[in-house]
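Worked example

This section walks through a single chain of length 95. The input is the sequence exactly as stored; nothing has been trimmed or padded.
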Amino acid sequence: MSYTIAAEIRTEIGKGSSRRLRHANKVPAVIYGAGKEPISIKFDHKDIINIQENADFYSSDLTITVDGKDVKVRVQAMQRHAFKPLIEHVDFKFA
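Given that input, the structure is written out below as tokens.
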């Protein structure tokens, strides 16, 4: 199964801006990999909360649409809230 997530480039980086994104129901994330510049992105929490419950979400390639370009990635790490069903940050790796 293939998953597609629409994302936007993040211009503000840091703890304060990440908290503001989370309060606005957005998830801060980063895409990185060997030989490429890291890309800081943000997307809606509702776009990932349901699809991340599937086991193949973590083992298959995902498509992230950033500024009209499709980027193939894999989930590297995901930080969740301690007791709420919230995702706080996602690390993606170029596929």
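What to look for: The helical segments are 15-23, 46-49.
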